[in-house]
Amino acid sequence: MKWKRKVNREHPGKARKIIHIDMDAFFASVEQRDNPELRGKPIAVGGSKMRGVVAAASYEARKYGVRSAMPSVTAKRLCPDLIFVKSNFDKYREVSDLIREIFYSYTDLVEPLSLDEAYLDVTEPKRGPASATLIAQAIREEIVAATELTASAGISFNKFLAKVASDINKPNGMKVIMPEDAPAFLAALPVEDFHGIGKVTAARMHKMGYRTGGDLRKLSEMEMAQRFGKVGRHYYRIVRALDDRPVNPNRNRKSVGAERTYSEDVSTLSVMKDKIDWLAEKVFQYLEGRDNFGRTVTLKMKSPEFVIHTRSRSFSGEIRKLQDLKEIAHQLLTENVDEVPVVRLLGLSVSNLEREGGEGVQLLLPFEEE
Question: pTM, whole model, 2 decimals?
Answer without folding.
Answer: 0.75
